[in-house]
Amino acid sequence: MNNNNEKEISRRDFIRASGIGVGGLLLLGMIEPEAVLAETPAEKAILYDATKCLYCHTCEMFCKQSNELEGEIDVDGDLSPNTWLIIDRMEYGPEVGGIQPGWLFIRSACMHCGTCASVCPSGAIIKLDNGSIAVEQDKCIGCHYCHQACPLDIPRYGEDGTMRKCDFCQDRLALGEKPACVGACPANALIFGDRDEMVVEGRERVQALIAEGYSDAYLYGDKELGGMPVMYVLAYSPEEYGLPLMPKATETQMTWRDLIKPLGGMLGGLAVLGVGAKYVKAKKAK
Amino acid sequence: MIELQTTWGWEIAIYLFLGGLAAGAICAAAILNLATGERFKNTIRFSAWASVIALVVGVSLLLLEVGLPFRAIVLFKSFVNFDSWMTVGAWLLIGGVLIYGVYALAFTGCVTRRLRFLQRWRTILAIIVIPLSLAIAAYTGVLLSVLWARPLWDTWFLPALFTASALNTGVALVAAYANLRESGEKAASLRKALEISAVSLIALEGTILGCYLASMLSGSEVAALSAQVLTTGELSLLFWLIVVGLGLAVPLLVSIILIIRSDIARKTRGVFPMLGILLCLGGGFTLRLLVLSAGLPILT
């Protein structure tokens, strides 16, 4: 028995109090169960044909207007919380007599690859059934993990600290309309439809480019990360457009990560075994 | 001109450092507990409380760093996607605070007088603490290593490096107490054991760091460019001087000298070993800060 005046708290009381505390916290957490990633294939897709783009900025204007994003467009600007789409241009080809032979145009906006959704701790970034990636601002905590994960440097953060990016015009899609940028394009450089059809269309355009002599023509987003809901028809290799080479879904470099969670489970299992062994030993000693 | 990674700055570097330091210190304390029983309970108590405080400060810094700290602090709503390593890590760290906290309480006299059964839990807690702390130490590297869009981080060398560094800095923290407060013949053997551990861990960390850099330098274009920022570029002076020189080489030398000539610690009233320990801790933090800063995006 305890000789001190202080009252000893029994193990049972301690465990009971701890249990009530932990149980209460768990119940709190269950108030709003979270739906995380929908494991559905991309159904819809936007196809951007860099070879048809006129650099007219109509898509940028309609993106701002449709999504009620403040500010004017800045043709040489960068993405921002209020600019979800810009068309970049870059000089291309060998300089001859101080004159650059041509320009390449490339769309800079979210390609909805879903890398951000897989790392978002708060479940604010979710993959929708149509394959696109949406952000629920009221859940975002502004940790910037999505910014670190994004291969295309897309996420931007508003004054309230939450992430902003292209949302695939979900509101328009719900009304059966095309995304604003696609509807605005006068050159047919942006088209929208079922992803299967867009892949067929994109591959045909690439084949036509190769037949024209563009041997490095490429459909970017067709296979990358298992296939993305936004694809680009490119006349040259992705690097020429400043696009990163992305891993395919089955790249071996991804596999070691699959080992981590089982390994963690094994460590946990070892701890349980250790505690069990200690318990058995203590019992035997008695 | 290369644009360094600035989205995550010193707050996250401290978060990663403290998470590792706490894990390393309590892991060393738990091993000490299992190996020697309660002979060094003061060292164990100090290490356990230091770990709890380090984890609390670390998690607080993570929460303060995010754009919406008051939303983030409601962990049950803000860390719910368990596909995300940040979620796994946040909960591991909270678990760490709780388990390390109970372990620290089990060595705190004024608590065990009222909760006597806690003393009987010490061994079981130590068994739980070791894998938990290793998981937390590794997590600090995994958090970055799953980001394939930053090639310098996209490797299993990073969790290995941060785990080795965590154990290295953790042992240094335990050694700090052992040097300053433990006395007697047995304390001398403890100090020697800690110095031998330090030498082994510095050698391990140095080897992993070397392999990591070699693998990055011979890797993809951006990986090599990022590694060059550390080895020959903008951060090379800090890297070679603070991380490699002062953070690894000098502590290694100090520990080797102390193994050979243990009387130096007494003659310098603990200043000599403390020099190695403080440099080791500074090197550990700088390592994380530089690895964070040099993590160039794939779109470089």
List the helices and strands and how they pair.
The complex is a heterodimer of chains A (286) and B (300).
Chain A: H1 11-29, E1 44-49, H2 58-66, E2 85-92, E3 102-109, H3 115-119, E4 125-127, E5 133-135, H4 145-149, E6 156-157, E7 163-164, H5 170-174, H6 180-184, E8 190-194, H7 195-211, E9 218-220, E10 230-234, H8 255-285
Parallel strand pairs in A: 1-10
Antiparallel strand pairs in A: 1-8, 2-3, 4-5, 6-7, 9-10
Chain B: H1 10-36, H2 41-65, H3 69-72, H4 75-78, H5 85-105, H6 109-112, H7 117-120, H8 122-145, H9 157-180, H10 185-217, H11 221-231, H12 236-260, H13 263-267, H14 271-293
Helix pairs in contact in B: 1-2, 1-8, 1-9, 1-14, 2-5, 2-9, 5-8, 8-9, 9-10, 9-14, 10-12, 11-12, 12-14
Structural features, described:
- With 286 residues, chain A is of the alpha+beta class.
- Chain A folds into two domains: 2-33 and 261-285, no CATH class; 40-92 and 102-249, Alpha-Beta Plaits (2-Layer Sandwich), CATH 3.30.70.
- Chain A contains eight helices and ten strands.
- In chain A, the strands form four sheets. A four-stranded mixed beta sheet of chain A has the order 8-1-10-9. A two-stranded antiparallel sheet of chain A has the order 2-3.
- Chain B is mostly helical.
- Chain B is 78% helix and 0% strand.
- Chain B is built from 14 helices and no strands.
- Chain B has helices at 10-36, 41-65, 69-72, 75-78, 85-105, 109-112, 117-120, 122-145, 157-180, 185-217, 221-231, 236-260, 263-267, 271-293.
- The chains are: A alpha+beta (286), B mainly alpha (300).
